[in-house]
Specification:
Blueprint lengths: L4 H11 L4 H8 L8 H12 L7 H10 L4 H13 L22 E2 L4 E2 L4 E3 L2 E2 L38 H8 L1
Antiparallel strand pairs: 1-2, 3-4
Helix pairs in contact: 2-3, 2-4
The protein binds zinc ion (2 copies).
């Protein structure tokens, strides 16, 4: 199912736990004389697909919360031209994607990129009751992430005691 571009922005904002007002404040903090009431109204229209915006506004929104401009543009294509192009793969709960994985593991609160546990469900959002298709429709996330927020690599070991001892000997 292809969601509307505005719904995508709304899902990503809600996944970040931000209100419209907070997104307006964070994204547009650098603009002097900004009218936050107006920004908030425009963001609400954006999420209803009642308006669409420039790359400059998208870049500001990305300061406030994490989403993929590429996914948004794919969804805009669908919105304006109808089906036919590639359909982005999104989590049905938080709308994360290969381009902007969730980066915190809710169990440990430690940084960890989520992975697919079903065709349209990520590991962060999967709960007890979810039909998780392990190893079937659930390929691991690609390492070829070309998004702007690639997950951090595994932390390297602090040091290797064996190597240190060799050097000291
Ligand atoms: Zn998710
Ligand atoms: Zn996720």
């Amino acid at each position: 199912m292809v969601i509307k571009p505005g719904i995508y922005l709304q899902m990503r904002r809600q996944a970040a736990g931000l209100s419209l007002r907070q997104a307006a404040e964070i994204g547009f903090a650098a603009l002097p004389h900004r009218d936050l009431d107006r920004v908030e109204r425009q963001l609400a229209l954006l999420e209803q697909d009642a308006t669409h915006v420039s790359r400059a506004v998208i870049a500001r929104l990305q300061l406030a919360y994490d989403f993929s401009r590429e996914i948004y543009e794919q969804l805009l294509d669908h919105h304006f031209a109808g089906p036919g192009g590639a359909e982005p793969r999104l989590c049905r709960r938080c709308a994360c994607s290969e381009h902007d994985a969730c980066l915190i593991d809710p169990a440990s609160s430690l940084p960890a990129a989520c992975r697919w546990v079903a065709a349209d469900l990520c590991s962060r959002c999967a709960g007890p009751g979810d039909d998780v298709a392990e190893g079937d429709a659930a390929p691991a996330r690609s390492d070829e992430t070309e998004g702007d927020n690639a997950p951090a690599p595994d932390p390297a070991p602090m040091s290797d005691p064996a190597t240190l001892q060799d050097e000291a000997a």
